[in-house]
Structure formats: structure tokens, C-alpha cells
Amino acid sequence: MLRFRKNIYLDNNATTKISKVVLKKMTTVLKNIWGNPSSLYKTSHQSAQILKIARENIAKAINAEPDEILFTSCATESNNSVIKYLFEKEFPKKNKIISTAIEHPSILSTLEYLKNKGAEIVFFNTSPNGDINYKELESLIDDSTIMVCAMSANNEIGLILDVKRIVEIAHKKCVYVLSDCVQALGKIKIDVKDSKVDYASFSAHKIQGPKGIGALYIKNGNPFNSLIHGGHQENGLRAGTESLHNIAGFGEVCKNIDAKLKKVPSVNKLKQYFISELKKLNQNIKINSEGEKFLANTISVTFIGTSNEKLMAALDYRGISVSAGSACNTLENAPSHVLKAIGLNDDEARSTIRFSLSESNTLSEINYTLEALDDYFNNRLPAIGAISPKQANETLLLDKSTFVLDIRSENDRKSIKSIPNSFQADFLGIRKYLDNIPKDRHVIVVCQGGVNSPFTAYYLKSKGYVNVSFIMTGMWGWKLANKDFYNRYTEE
Ligand code: PLP
């Protein structure tokens, strides 16, 4: 849809592009090795062999035994399975789960779900420089504690936790530890024998592997039962015919884990360069991921006083994909829980961008990104307006010179009714509607959550529209701020 000059991907903590060797392996398996690994005839032996080798490769990458590796559909499943299983097993004798406050939603939402079933959820803090208050953790563990959730590396700021030390503390009181290792695999050395962690979750798509395949490490002797019941696959621990091509792809990634780790210093060099140049370019920034306690690929930057939504859209306009590092599409445009946990206020969290690199990024891509940022901060990019939900009042929206462009889906329009007289267009097919959008009016773009509209606004700018704005927080936030007007026009 958008006219990109380049395509620079700096959002590798969200997902990664599959590598050529992995793709080749998966294609071979899809084409030639399609037997069911559980069957008994010859065609299936090859499949069973693929499964075995992949399991061995993953085990080797984290210094585990092959029978300690269980394949799942994703890390979200791995995290859900362990937490729900241990809670079910121990409740009501025990009900406390301790977690860091910076876990991924696949942990936090599961904990929230269990709260309604009687779990006591307690968080321990991490300071802005990555220090953990180990004493606080120790004091939180008591006889009612089931487990501790502590990720190995955080996805938003790249903070690396000392899981070995956390395990030492938890094990003194016979409490299990689950570590989400999704962002750590391939970026720092993982040794489950050394850390003695009880459970660990992994995902292939964060390290040039396929999507839809995860793994769960379960230390030998530790209890486990699956969320998914059926056949006897995975040693009876997780039912369902194995996704063989995905598993083969995951195994292939892990086979090369040492080579990946060897590339970390060069990624780190790019990170250091980016940070030092960024500091020269804009002094009004705060780096949230600097130093040895942070992953070499993750750069979280707070651009003080700048809306991350607008900046993200501006970078996208230049063909650069980054992430806001905040759940900005939620109801109240909620700032990131991770950034808040490390001490940022709401405004700072809403001004933060995550750049996450991979071994494929180059110096020229970093220079191009710095140039785009420089253009943005020196107003050399076309300006679009960001209108707060309160500013988008009845007077402005119904003014004759205003043209409200609603780019939501039909379903979204059913859940929140469109502003009267708004023009409805399809976000992805916006090009088709250009003849209907007047160039001489103030075009106000609105989407459901405030994420898509800046992209469309920039697109219109690139097509010669002079006066273009978008409503921050989208229709969700707008409806909350304009209840009276909304009620009147929906009742009519
Ligand atoms: N844990 C962390 C730290 C992540 O970054 C992610 C992915 O966003 C997940 C878990 C979920 O992984 P998956 O996409 O395999 O469910």
C-alpha cells in the first residue's frame, strides 16, 4: 500500500525472516518426508528420524537431554501449559505464583486468568538498570508458593535476568522456576544444566525459524501434564500429530546456534554505533537498554516529548519497521507494562520505540535509519497532525471543512458506530478511494485503536494531501472521551 523507498526491518524481537537453510530443510521435509512419525511402516521411520534429530539439536543448543524437550505450537502454549498445570496440581494446598513484572503477556495473562481461580499473584521488581532485588524475591517465597516465573531476557528492553541466581533462591524453598527463554535463544548462551531451571519455553520464529512451533524444556523428574489431550505423541505429554516441517525447521536453527552466538558481537557493534550516533543527533532521548545486562540486539529509546505512534508511522513511511514497545492498540492506549515496571512514566512509555536488530542488518541500514530520524526531528518529513480524542469534538468533526475518513473493518464499525458523515474506506485498499477523498479539506483519519490511522495519514501525505490528521487512540478512546455526542448520534 505505502510507497517505500527501502525495506529495513528492525523489529526482530517481534519475529524474524526465515533463513535460507531453514527454508530449504522445511521444503525438503514437506515435499519428501510426509509420513506420520507415529506410524509403524517404513515411510514413517524417516519422519520419526527427523523428529529425533530436531529434538537432539534443540536439546544440544540449551545443554538439555533430548527427552527433556517437548514440542508445542508456540512459546505461548509452553508458558500456559506449565503455569496452568502446576497451579492445578498444587491448588488449593498452595496458591501463590511469583513473577517478574516484565514478563510477556503469555505469562501475565495466564496469571491473570488464574487469579480468578484462586491464585495469589505477586510481582517482584526490576530496577531501570536491570538489577533485581534478590532479597525481595527471597522474602516473597513462603510455604504457599508454587512457582516463580522469570524470563531469561525481556522482549521490549532486552534486559537479561540472572536466572541461575533466581533458581538458587527458589530451590532453597523447593519452588519451581519457569523461565521464558524466547528472546534469549541464539542471543545469549543458555545452559539449563548449569542454571538448574525447572521449565523453559522457546519459540522458533524469533531466530530465523518458522512460526507456529515452540518447545518446552521440562527438567527430568519434574511433573508435567499437557493442556492438550488425545493421542500418545510426545511421550504421552502432548497430543496431536507433530508439525514435522516446522519441527525440522526449528531443529535446523538450533543446529547452528553456536554460529549464531558468534555473530552476537557484530550485532552489538551495530547497536553501540546506533546509540552513539543517536545521542549526537537528538539529546532529548533516554536509552532504556544500554550496558551488558541487555541483549546485544535490542535498543529501547524514549524520545522525550514525541508520540511513538507518530514516529513509528513516519519511519514506516521511509520503509523502516520498528515497534512502539507499547500496547498502543488497547482500549486506553495503555502504556507498556515493561517500561512502567522499570520506572518510566506514562508519557515516557508512550514516547518509546524499540529497535531490534538481527545478524542480517547492516551498517548502511542503520545509517539510513539515523538519517530518517534526523529528518523527522528536523521537520524534513511531511507533518501529519495528531488529534487527541477530546480535541476531536463535535464542532471539529461536523465542520464543513473536515472530511472524516473511517478506515475500520465492517466488524469494528458494528462494535462502535461511525462518526456521522464519515467516509468509509478499506485500510489496505485505500488507493482505490483516492478520487473520493477531497484534497481541499482537512482529512481526519480514524481507525479502531489508533494504530493504523497514522500509516494512512502518511500515505495521503505522499499523495499530495496537505492537511491530514489522525485521531490518537482511535474510535475506542474517542468514544470514551465523547460519550455524550456518541450516545446522541447512535440513539437517533
Ligand atoms: N515470550 C516472549 C518473551 C516473546 O517475546 C514472545 C513473542 O512475542 C513469546 C513469549 C510468545 O512466543 P510465540 O509467538 O511463540 O507464542
What's this, in brief?
With 492 residues, the chain is α/β, with parallel strands linked by helices.
CATH architecture of the largest domain: 3-Layer(aba) Sandwich
- Ligand species: pyridoxal-5'-phosphate
| Sheet with most strands | 7 strands, mixed
Averaging pLDDT over every residue, what do you get? 92
Across the major sheet, the strand order is 2-8-7-6-5-3-4
Class from helix and strand fractions: alpha/beta
What name goes with the CATH superfamily of the largest domain? Type I PLP-dependent aspartate aminotransferase-like (Major domain)
What is the top-level CATH class of the largest domain? Alpha Beta
How many distinct domains? 3
Tertiary shape: globular
Query: What is the total tally of β strands?
Result: 17
Task: Determine the strand fraction and express it as a percent band.
Answer: 5-15%
Question: Ranges with pLDDT <50 over ≥5 residues?
Answer: 326-332
Distance between the termini: 36 Å
Radius of gyration: 25 Å
How helix-rich are the residues, as a percent range? 25-40%
How many DSSP helices? 19
Annotated CATH topology of the largest domain: Aspartate Aminotransferase, domain 2
Itemize the secondary structure elements and their pairings.
Elements: E1 8-9, H1 20-32, H2 42-61, E2 69-72, H3 75-90, E3 96-100, H4 105-115, E4 120-124, H5 134-140, E5 145-149, H6 163-172, E6 176-180, H7 192-195, E7 199-203, E8 214-218, H8 244-255, H9 257-262, H10 264-281, E9 285-287, E10 298-303, H11 308-317, E11 320-321, H12 337-341, H13 346-349, E12 352-356, H14 363-377, E13 385-387, H15 394-397, E14 402-406, H16 410-415, E15 423-424, E16 442-446, H17 452-462, E17 468-471, H18 474-481, H19 483-491
Parallel strand pairs: 1-11, 3-4, 3-5, 5-6, 6-7, 13-17, 14-15, 14-16, 16-17
Antiparallel strand pairs: 2-8, 7-8, 9-10, 10-12
The site of pyridoxal-5'-phosphate (PLP) has 12 residues, from helix 3.
